[in-house]
Amino acid sequence: MLTVDDAMRILQEAGEEDLARGTGTERLPRSYRVTSVFDLMRSRVGWLLVLIVAATLTVNVLDHFQHLLDQVVVLALFVPLLIGTGGNAGAQSATTVVRAMAVGDISGGDHLRVFLKETSTGLVLGSLLAGVGFLPAAVFAGRSIAVVVCVALVAICVLATAVGSLIPMLARRLGIDPAVVSAPFISTIVDASGLIVYFLVARAVLGLN
């Protein structure tokens, strides 16, 4: 017999598990007060190891485009801003989609609609951020660099929201809990792909080889 207390306990455990996986950890089996340092380490180290391996993609991208950074050093100053914004945009999109799936707002036939809505949102957000940031970037680094940063910012926001919307839906189709596809993992993917977009835009706008 399943009592109300049992149902509440199951719901609480499921919520705690989703919250933990959304931040790249595993749910603690016991209260934090009595959880040892070793158990805390074990709940986090798996995801950190996965993310370290995934982060090598970002390192490889930077190494591949190092010659562009050597030619225009100021490009490196905007890398944290761009990949940070992209990671946050992707995480926001993923969180929104996972929540919508959990409450039944998204069904199996809604993939295209969700994708278009999220990429449109990314386009609007990116354009807004680019409009706000163009003048400060132009004053700080010059008009050409500002154009590169703003165009890349729009493209990265669109890319990030696309990734953030598609991965949870793909995970559910494959029978994987969408909460497992955590925000840190999406951020890592967007970091590498966003850098590629940034350097390709820089190469095109600045005429670099």
Structure description:
With 209 residues, the chain is mainly alpha-helical. Helices cover 78% and strands 0% of the residues. The protein has 7 helices and no strands. Helix 2 runs parallel beside helix 7, helix 4 packs parallel to helix 6 and helix 5 runs antiparallel to helix 6. The radius of gyration is 20 Å and the shape is globular. The N and C termini lie far apart (70 Å).
Q: How are the SSEs placed, and which strands pair?
A:
Blueprint lengths: L3 H19 L14 H28 L1 H6 L7 H24 L8 H31 L1 H31 L9 H24 L3
What would the principal axes of the Cα set say about the shape? globular
The helix tally amounts to: 7
Biggest sheet statistics: none
State the secondary-structure class. Answer: mainly alpha
What is the CA-atom radius of gyration, in angstroms? 20 Å
Task: Write down the overall mean pLDDT.
Answer: 83
* Uncertain stretches: none
Order of helices and strands: HHHHHHH
Helix content: over 70%
> How many DSSP-defined strands?
0
- Distance between the amino and carboxyl termini: 70 Å
Portion of residues in beta strands equals under 5%
What attributes characterize this protein structure?
globular; mainly alpha; 7 helices; single chain; 209 residues; 0% strand
